[in-house]
Write a structure and sequence with these properties.
- The chain has 439 residues and is of the alpha/beta class.
- The chain contains 14 helices and 12 strands.
- α8 crosses α14.
- It starts with 17 loop residues before the first helix and ends in an 11-residue tail after the last helix.
Length: 439
């Protein structure tokens, strides 16, 4: 089995000869916060990357991108440069500091657990495989807040936290005053990988408008079908590891070729899409989230259990409920595409991909692939956190009605059910029990 990136950033890939170690020992320690020169890093791509959002998906991608960078650049670094250049950095809030290793910088110790596969992809060995990483960390806010420029920002926060999180680092996305502005040269790239990417993109443009072009910030849309969730650990325990279960291996889609190339080096399934293809894919992903997230949260089950569950208060089966949810999503998506003035070929392609039968097949396939996953909305309800339902089902409701006067009662009903469920648990003090192995 191929050896993946070890847990220290001074990885085995970069162990130098005795002569190189002696040479390094005579050099003063310095921290490199900017990309290396073209000679040192001919294939820099999106690196260095800052990952904003330390949830399961954010940490999963941080580890994959770190692995990707080492795979790509393992032969051009000596021990000194490898120990000081940070290709991937997690941006975390200050309350995480006690969990981080100080060796010599803040590091997040991470264990990625690969859930065993079942069905046609099952292997004879169903043991859970694990990989360990240590990801450099910068704390947001407080005295230790870093102000160095950010080249690439991968946004993986909850949709309802996205704008607040972005504003906390926005000044680092603007060009340095000493750099002459070139409106054709993008200084920073924001890759939106969060759920509710369409809603987040709209919120960014609503707040910043034309200043995005003036500041040289490029907004890129991405989406993923990977499933992951955090395994409980004591956040107050010193150096407590972040343990992430990679419950469903999916695909990554983006309009940015450098991001896709980096994910491919991590041996992930990836595709680069055109703007129209990404638009269609995000509506398909929104359809997935509008079905899986609220229904798993309401019923307290893993994704795969939706296939065998009866929804008596909504209908007779998942298929019946899904049809109504997806009819509304499809209607709003198609009206939105029509309003953008695409040509006839684009409209035919969109009509095919966003039809209810195709969406249903796509959603069912994702449910099967992520059968062992605990949805992010169910995790939020269990932890008594605010859910993203208003950025998912709520986005369909508000966008459809406010812009096109299309009513979406089924999605509205799911919003109300999830919010009512949150209120019940918040006021009663009752927390959902952890899912047992049979769910």
């Amino acid at each position: 089995m191929h050896r993946l990136v070890p847990k220290s950033i001074q990885a085995a890939h970069f162990r130098a000869s005795n002569k190189a170690r002696q040479s390094r020992s005579r050099r003063p320690l310095r921290i490199i916060t900017q990309p290396l020169s073209s000679k040192q890093n001919a294939n820099g791509g999106i690196f260095p990357v800052h990952v904003l959002g330390s949830g399961s998906i954010g940490i999963l991608y941080a580890c994959a991108l770190q692995q990707s960078y080492f795979e790509q650049n393992s032969r051009i670094f000596d021990t000194f440069s490898a120990a000081n250049f940070k290709p991937v950095t997690l941006l975390m809030r200050s309350h995480h500091e006690n969990r981080l290793r100080k060796h010599p910088h803040l590091l997040a110790p991470v264990t990625i657990l690969d859930a065993p596969r079942f069905g046609k992809h099952a292997s004879s060995n169903r043991k859970t495989l694990s990989r360990e990483f240590e990801i450099p960390v910068e704390l947001i806010g407080g005295l230790k807040h870093d102000h160095a420029p950010i080249k690439s920002l991968l946004l993986c926060t909850k949709a309802n936290d996205a704008m607040t999180a972005l504003l906390s680092v926005w000044e680092r996305l603007s060009p340095s005053p000493c750099v002459e502005k070139d409106l054709h040269q993008k200084f920073s790239t924001i890759i939106i990988l969060s759920n509710g990417a369409l809603a987040i993109r709209d919120a960014i443009y609503e707040k910043f408008g034309r200043s995005l072009d003036e500041s040289g910030i490029d907004i890129v849309l991405a989406t993923t079908t990977h499933g992951a969730y955090k395994v409980d650990s004591d956040p107050l325990e010193y150096h407590s590891r972040f343990r992430i279960t990679h419950a469903g291996k999916g695909s990554t889609y983006c309009t940015n070729s450098e991001f896709i190339d980096s994910c491919k080096l991590a041996r992930w399934d990836c595709s680069i899409l055109s703007d129209l293809e990404m638009f269609i894919m995000l509506w398909k992903k929104l359809a997935v989230n509008c079905v899986i997230n609220p229904l798993t949260a309401i019923h307290g089950v893993k994704n795969g259990d939706l296939l065998n569950r009866q929804f008596r208060h909504l209908g007779s089966s998942l298929e019946y409920v899904m049809d109504h949810i997806l009819e509304e999503v499809s209607a709003v998506a198609m009206i939105d595409i029509e309003s953008r003035g695409h040509d006839i070929n684009a409209m035919q392609s969109a009509s095919q991909h966003l039809s209810v039968p195709v969406l249903k097949k796509f959603v069912t396939n994702i449910i099967s692939k992520t059968a062992n996953n605990i949805s992010s909305m169910l995790q939020d309800v269990k932890s008594e956190r605010v859910t993203e339902v208003r950025f998912l089902n709520g986005y369909v409701v508000d966008f459809g009605f406010n812009k096109y006067s299309v009513e979406c009662p089924w999605n509205q009903h799911l919003c109300e059910e999830v919010e009512a469920l949150q209120q019940i648990h918040r006021h009663s003090g009752i927390r959902l029990e952890a899912l047992n192995d049979n769910q």
